[in-house]
Amino acid sequence: MDTGGICPKANIKRSLIGAYEEERADPRIEVLEIVGDMFKLD
């Protein structure tokens, strides 16, 4: 899955994913939970 698939489901912009990758921002817990559910993480 790429950022194009994650962004709509997590209701975030693609630029925010870039900010996470470059450590300019930290994801909200809600976003982490959504992404975790998408990849079936416990």
Question: Can you put this structure into words, describing what you see?
Answer:
- With 42 residues, the chain is mainly alpha-helical.
- It has one domain.
- 62% of the residues lie in helices and 0% in strands.
- It is built from 3 helices and no strands.
- The mean pLDDT is 93.
Q: Unreliable runs, pLDDT <50, ≥5 residues?
A: none
Oligomer: single chain
Label the overall shape.
globular
With helices defined by DSSP (H or I, 4 residues minimum), what is the helix count? 3
Helical content band = 55-70%
Order of helices and strands: HHH
Report how far apart the termini are: 19 Å
Structural class: mainly alpha
Portion of residues in beta strands equals: under 5%
Protein topology:
Elements: H1 3-10, H2 14-21, H3 29-38
Brief account:
With 42 residues, this protein is mostly helical. It contains three helices and no strands.
Task: Name a few traits of the molecule.
42 residues; mainly alpha
